[in-house]
Amino acid sequence: MTSSLEDSLTAAQLExxxxxxxxxxxxxxxxxxKTRVVTHRIAHLLEQGIPASQVxxxxxTNKAADEMRQRLGQLAPGxxxxxxxxxxxxxxLLRRHAERVGLRENFSIADVDDSRxxxxxxxxxxxxxxxxxxxxxxAQAISWAKNNLITAELYQPRPxxxxxxxxxxxxxxxxxxxxxxxxxxFDDLLLHVATLLRENPELRESLDRRYRYVMVDEYQDTNLAxxxxxxxLSIDFPNLxxxxxxDQSIYGWRGAxxxxxxxxxxxxPRVNVVRLEQNYRSTRRILRVADELISHNVRRKHKELFTExxxxxxxxxxxxxxxxxxxxxxxxxxxxxxxxxxxxxxxFAVFYRVNALSRAxxxxxxxxxxxxxxxxxxxxxxxxxxxxxxxxxQLVNNPANDAALLRVINTPTRGIGATTVERIQAFxxxxxxxxxxxxxxxxxxxSLNARAAVAVARFxxxxxxxxxxxxxxxxxxxxxxxxxxxYRKTLEGSDAPEDMDRLANIEELLTDxxxxxxRHPHETPLEPFLEQTALVNDTDDLEGASDRxxxxxxxxxKGLEYPVVFIVGVEQGLIPHERSRxxxxxxxxxxxxxxxxxxxxxxxxxxxxxxYRVTHGMNRAVVPSPFLMELPRREMDVVTAPRLTPQYxxxxxxxxAEWGEDWLPTTQLRDDARxxxxxxxxxxxxxxxxxxxxxxxxxxxxxxxxxxxxxPASGSSASRVAKPRREATMAPASGTASGNPLAALxxxxxxxxxxxxxxxxxxxxxxxxxxxxxxxHGMRVQHPEYGVGQIVHLVGxxxxxxxxxxxxxxxxEKKFRLAFSPLRPM
DNA sequence: TGTGAGTTGATTTTT
DNA sequence: TCAACTCACA
Length: 826
Hints:
Blueprint: H1 11-18, E1 24-28, H2 34-47, E2 55-59, H3 62-75, E3 82-85, H4 86-97, E4 108-109, H5 112-125, H6 135-147, H7 162-180, E5 183-184, H8 186-199, H9 201-210, E6 213-216, H10 224-232, E7 239-244, H11 259-262, H12 264-267, E8 272-276, E9 278-279, H13 284-294, E10 306-307, E11 315-320, H14 323-339, E12 348-352, H15 358-367, E13 372-375, H16 384-397, H17 402-408, H18 418-431, H19 435-440, H20 450-467, H21 474-484, H22 487-493, H23 497-519, H24 526-535, E14 549-553, H25 554-557, E15 562-567, H26 584-598, E16 601-610, E17 612-615, E18 618-621, E19 636-640, H27 650-653, H28 665-672, H29 684-700, H30 725-729, H31 741-746, H32 752-759, E20 780-783, E21 787-795, E22 802-807, E23 813-817, E24 824-825
Parallel strand pairs: 1-7, 1-8, 2-3, 2-6, 4-5, 6-7, 9-10, 11-16, 11-19, 12-14, 12-15, 13-14, 15-16
Antiparallel strand pairs: 17-18, 20-21, 20-24, 21-22, 22-23
Helix pairs in contact: 1-2, 2-3, 4-8, 5-7, 5-17, 6-7, 8-10, 13-26, 14-15, 16-17, 16-20, 16-23, 21-23
The protein binds a DNA duplex through residues 60-62, 85-88, 111-112, 134, 186-187, 189-190, 250-251, 253-254, 353-356, 377-378, 410, 413, 415-420, 534-537, 553-556, 574, 577-580, 593, 614-618, 800.
């Protein structure tokens, strides 16, 4: 009997759904109904009498797992299979077999913060000086190793890699510290489990038998550790079904190995491959733009994306003068649609490459009174007060948790300062003890003075007392510790306004805990609660419910869809990101990231970039993303937005007549903006722009000193006087007067390299600032205000080059960042 | 030991 | 720019 569930499925979808035994690879393009297929397949398996306990479904995000669970709930009510993220599954297995990898079952999961803390301590232990590398870079090296199943013992640094050499020294110490604190970091959740499965064949076999039908979502994002886990569960019963899309692999930086999916057919020779290529989400135009972009990637599996959806509107590409214009325009356009009743706020999403770009958007949305929500990776559980309290809870559950202890030993302040903590740490390292045990022996630490020792002893007693509550409901433990630690009182006694917010957050945490307690009435809820807070970020359930515009990073957008999508900051250095520049594989990943963003859009898509963007407090000329040149112009409307920011700064315009209520940006755009001609000479637009250039300098008085495309400064001030940007950015080879990158797009320039080359001309700098490199120690200089002086000290390079000048007039010394100062050599 | 001003330095993505 | 960190002082 064919289930009625399957009536509406296409042939390809049906094939995947009906597949039962043996390996299955579902190559699912964006919007191809992948989740639907997967949930139907599970329902189908269950329908055929396969016990729910034999089915395991692994996802990357909680969001994906939740959605699947919910949809499955509709198809097969009451059946519950193990479904969740890899990390959660790792934690689940590890709890049961912790002792086999040297942990105790009440281990805690260190978040990034905790793990950095431990890492820094490990660096200190290993006497690694951090001149050559940041803890961050070492952490990355270790993380990379773990994701590739390289344990501390096996780690071999790449020859010549300074960071690698340091990591080799720190890694064992770090790992030892984690074990001592009964802690695992995120990567350990996978690495330990992989090790467990490799070293315990009987355990592997029993799990393989138990999880007979394993499903993996987003397979393109698996790293080696995840691969190993999945593989070990599919040896005797190779009913492994994976879904994925190589074109949507965007987690290479986290160790994802694209080969896992590209080579799946080699790993499992008898695999059944199903391609889901029909898109049910986007208009034809959007899909063609996406397809054209991604076709520039080499490492992929070709797919024929198609859709029966309508043609749709052209994809818009807009050039703005500044990020404020960009944000204002988007906000206004959304506002116009909302007012006209054409759309609801939840229909809109704005994507950006880096979180920092949300700021301008937020400001614009607030000013225009548009409800929005930001999907932030962190938020609630990362707030100081919440983390503090969670750390106390961690200590109740696992007193050996050094990271948690370090966090709260003096929070609220109780007279245990940095020096004291250092001495306890030294004692702990020397004796191989967790910090709590060292603290317990505070009386025996000779370097501690009596007062400190007493304070520490008091703290230990406090923890011991709290620890007795370990089996109580979480909310009750929280209440008690808020009182006994004095945490609440400290905040209540404070008159700092942010402390009121903190109290509110604490209330929220209490509610959270109480709810959790209710949902877990039969167990000791503390440990699962802590696991939840470590592995779930609260934005996972941010979706849907509220009617707001959603702002998020491109990464966060994966798996989602919206009727109207804006992607801002499509610029060189952003997408592709600065750090992905030299590496082809990384460049392809950036392209996929943009592909993911584009394919989120159902009906309308707008890409935009700015001529100038403020980054790190500096206003810099922007190069549009080379990816833009890979998009098919025939599917697009390419427009330059009129400058919204008037001459005397944008604040003046607010509320002014020209910023009227009925300002409809779309109309305005259409009327005023010119479709860029294939090539054009100096024009009205240019003159207009020349004016703006001056305003920029007056406003910002910044140079573009360390813009990545710059050549080293030549040193001659005369040549560096502001020039119209048109000239500065035009392609010398093309011979047209059009420096507008968009025109270049349409004109003779063909490749990103061409564009970069064309822009590798000194950009205009602020009229007053000199190249920092022309200054030398002892040089006599002139300052418009302070007069004549002499450079007595000189440090730093580039924009950070700072001179100390002693002025003749009254012998006073002043420091200047040379790149921005009006100093001139005499 | 705790606090505030001043300085420096770093800027991606997330389980 | 802005947040984290340092250093001087109470």
